[in-house]
User: What shape does this take?
Amino acid sequence: MAEVMHNKPNAPKPTPEGEATFRRWLAHLDEEFTRHTGCDRRSEIVRDELHMLLLGKPHGGRSTTTLETDLPLDVRKENFDPRNVSLAGEMPSRGCDSLDPDRFAAVKPLIWFWLQFDRSPLGLNLWLGFRFRAMLGSHIFASIGKDVYIYPGVTFLRGYNITLADNTRLEPNTYIDDRYPVRLTGNVSQ
Assistant: This one.
């Protein structure tokens, strides 16, 4: 798992209990995404994690409700599953047909997880967010160096075309057009 280091002695840290919980969760996810590289299993993992993070309860299978008042919740639950969403990276673009469907299928669930994490209250926790994005980046990107800091709101199209050198810092709300290979180093911003 890619690790983010804070060499500054005054860098904010969570409580020891919080840090232990965060590290255990990140290690668990890293292990799962290393072990399972296919779209379907990764999608199930992401769906289940989003259920717990955003609804506070485990995924209980498909809903059988027929009440129209429950439809918005059912829509929300179905949207947690990356197989039910369309992302910009898989949409045809003018003059560019560089999508590798097999490579994208493997990273799509992780990109969806990244986007949903960043849009949740968890994404605002920089200590956790730096480590979460670096961990996912190790499974999405072509390569990710050491001491990479990725702030909330960083977006990209495909992921698998991105190489991040050691000590790269992606500033908040940076967009990376990675239809073709991109190598980034230093401070990168929009």
